[in-house]
Each structure stands twice: as structure tokens, then as C-alpha cells.
Amino acid sequence: MRGAAIVGAFELPPQRTTPGVTSLEMIARAAKGATFDAGLTPQDIDGLMIGPQVGETPQHAPAALAEYLGLQPRFADIVDLGGACGPGMVWRAAAAIAAGMADTVLCVLGNARDPERLPRSPNRNPIREFDVPYGASGANQAYAMVAQAHMAEFGTTPEQLAQVPVKQRQNAMLNPNAVFHGKAITVDDVLSSPMVMSPLHLLEVVMPCGGGAAVVVTSSDRAHDTPHAPVHLLGAGEMVTHRALSQAPRLTTSPLAPAIEQAYRMAAVRADDLDLLSIYDCYSIVVAETIEDAGVCAKGEGGPWLEQADFSITSDLPINPHGGQLSTGQSDLAGGMGHVVEAVLQLRGDAVGRQIDDPELALVTGNGATLSEEVALILGSSRR
After folding, report:
1. What SS3 string covers 97-110?
2. What is the greatest pairwise CA distance in the chain?
3. Torsion, CA 150, CA 372, CA 53, CA 180, rounded to 10
4. Looking at 43-150, which runs of residues are DSSP E strands?
5. Residues in CB range of 168: below 8 A, 6 or more apart
6. Among 330, 317, 327, 268, which residue's Cα sits nearest to residue 85?
7. Of 141, 370, 376, 351, which is closest to residue 243 (Cα–Cα)?
8. Residue 312 and residue 318: Cα distance in Å, rounded?
9. Sign of dihedral through CA atoms 169, 86, 352, 355?
10. Does residue 288 contact residue 347 with C-beta atoms inside 8 Å?
11. pLDDT (tens digit per residue) in 21-58
């Protein structure tokens, strides 16, 4: 992994709706931005990583996107890990480079959100047979069950979980691209917002948006010829344990625990070494479980830890300085890539208006389905 680095990063500002815009256009804009940021041209890109059903093309998607972008990659692949697609792409790109399959890989995700043309597709996975008949349908109920389990086992309170959107909203006040920029909230605001699925309130649930994000990964040798300080991939971990929540081994821990442990081991670091957490946050409970699974606090102590923690850029361990998806908005699968982009900007010192003081190590996480398919990355600055 140490043979690869991220040299370009770009994210479109998430928007609640994007009428009249195609997903392919979003993807192309993100791809162009990341390639330009890396100081490269399309001719320099010889690897392509995309998400499932890119744009309006459910089959032959890598070929369709390569043609659309004017690329002729020697390596192309689809990563289907839900919100973990972005981090999952990064380590796969590094592996492709190490295997000699490519030199410079574009990893891109994008999603339009037009209320008049929301995609609908038949769902034939086992959830339809074993979970849905009992009323267990959709992300809201699944994450609500996770939160209920955490409360029952460890005594976590709604007030403690409400700290997540409140403190991330404070960070979003420094990010003009955040959907909720300039809209501070309190714990009372969270707890008085509509109950979506007990115990989760509206302000603890991510806002679906349109948008796109991309990074460019290349070999460490080539990385020093690009305009920005390279951000090195030091470690990675991945684990998939289930699809339906009814089949999850446990609800109060996730596959992130072994994935993060593997990433730590590969990078030869510990939780105490981290300078930044850029962690997936589709629901407040996900942040609580992630900090436990990352060893930032002990299992079951996530609630009290959230009460005392300082998420801000001046703290000992900033969390989601851009505001996270809860405040910035979730651009479908590109939301997970947004956490990669934020970590890259921070580690190279380019997070204008919200820059942490000289960070060297970041943990990035991605989460697909309901704590089902998880990826962890350890990224290091060029000073590391």
C-alpha cells in the first residue's frame, strides 16, 4: 500500500436536488476536477474505478464511462460496497498499481437527484423474503434497531447521540459547501425534530443529495511530480458480514472493528496516533459505534465519550471537519468518497477555512448497507 498515493481530489458541493442534470454529467465534472487538481490530463489516466450502475448505464458501465470521459484504461472495475465504495476504490487502485495493471487510477462516484426522475429498480435480494414481510424495510428502521440495541446494552441516551449532529453542524459552519452551512442547531433542536424511527430523529438522519466526488491514485514515485503534496495510503482493511440486518452477527459492533484493526496493523499505528477522523456518518449511531470500533474509546462508552468530545478543528482529535454527511449532505455513493476527499485536503494543508494544524495521520471509514460492508483507510501526509 505504501507504494501508492492520492495526488488529486475534488468534490462537487452537494445539492438537495439537481433537476435536468444526469449522473454521467456529475461524474464527468468530478472526474475533470480531480484530474485537473492532480495536474494531469485524460491521457495520463490508465485505470478507472467506478460505482455500480454508473449514470444511466446498468451494464458495460466501465466501458460507457470510459468512452464518455475519453479514456482508454488498461484497468477498469466496479466497486459495489454502498457507502464504502469510495474508500474501497482507493485500496483497490493501489493494488492495481502494485500489480502493474495501471500507473494512475481515477476513482469516481456521482449521482444526480431529480425528484421527477428518481430511479426505481426491482429488489430481489433476500431482504424481500425474510425481513420485509415483518415490516423491516429501509435504512431508517435498520439503523433505528441498531440504536435501540446500543441503548439497551450500554445505556446510551438520545441526548448523547444528539451530540453528533450538533457538533458536526458546528464544523459545517466553516464549510460554505455544506447544505446546512450557517444553520447551527442545539441538542434540544435535535430531540424536538420529528421522530423518523424511534429513537432516531430527523436531524440524526442523513440528507440525500445529488453530487459527485473523485480522487486520483498513482504510484508514490510518480506522485512527487504532481502539484500537491501526495497523501500516502499507509493501511487498509475491509470486512463484509451480512446484507440483511437480521443476519448481522451483532448490532452493537460492526465489521469496521476488524477492518480498522487490519488497517492499523498494516500502517503500524494505533488509535492514539491519529490526528483526524473522517468517518462515515449516515446516522448518529454510526459515529458512536465507529469511535468504539476504532478504539478511540472502549466498547459501550461511545455515548459518554460523545458528550465530552470536541469535534472541532482545534481539538486533539477533530471529527469530520467538513461537517460530515449529516451536515454537508449525502451525495449517494459519492458521500463516502467525500470523507476521502476531506482527509486528503486536510493532510496536504488545503482545507481552506477549516484547516487542522499540521495533521499527519487520518482514519477514513466507509459503510455500506447497514453496518454490513465496511472499509477503513489510514492515510498519511507527505511528512509522515
Report:
1. HHCCCCCEEEEEEE
2. 57
3. 30
4. 47-50, 75-78, 104-111
5. 281, 311, 319, 320, 323, 324, 326, 327
6. 330
7. 370
8. 5
9. positive
10. no
11. 988 999 999 999 999 999 999 999 999 999 987 666 67
